[in-house]
Write a structure and sequence with these properties.
Arc Repressor Mutant, subunit A; Alpha-Beta Plaits; 4-stranded antiparallel beta sheet
Length: 148
């Protein structure tokens, strides 16, 4: 991957809907060369998917929370069962296994506190493999970027 590929990725991560001819112009390539590079980035697995981001407030999902979770059983079966329960929930946007005092960090985007109460009972308080969970609610968002 060279500097041109990195420029292509930078533009695509900001706006994946950019037309190939415009992308090619911005990175200084012929459209055919640019398209070939983009296809190659997909083929190599560097680009893994293209998504549409929405405004969570306009979607009626304006309560955001970060939940730190300590598990009882770290064995593969128990952990995988718990992770599978998270994957099924629309409100769960991100899940990370982490090092340190906590085993996992879960990001939630919720419609209201009632949804949080219901979900926290189902996924955390009501799950026998969850030893402890601590929730922090997002008060203000100062930066949100998914590009890397």
């Amino acid at each position: 991957m060279d500097q041109i590929d990195r420029k292509i990725l930078d533009y695509l991560q900001r706006d994946a809907s950019i037309r190939n001819v415009d992308l090619a112009d911005r990175v200084g390539l012929a459209p055919s060369s640019c398209l070939r590079r983009v296809r190659n980035l997909w083929k190599q697995g560097i680009i893994t998917r293209s998504v549409v981001l929405t405004d969570s407030e306009k979607m009626g999902r304006n309560v955001k929370a970060i939940v730190s979770v300590k598990l009882v059983d770290h064995g593969n079966d128990a952990r995988e069962d718990w992770l599978a329960s998270l994957a099924e929930e629309r409100a769960v946007s991100q899940v990370y296994s982490v090092s340190g005092e906590t085993d996992a960090i879960v990001f939630l985007t919720l419609a209201n506190m009632g949804e949080f109460q219901e979900l926290s009972q189902k996924l955390f308080a009501g799950n026998s493999n969850v030893f402890q969970f601590v929730t922090q609610f997002i008060l203000e968002e100062h930066k949100f970027e998914l590009a890397n």
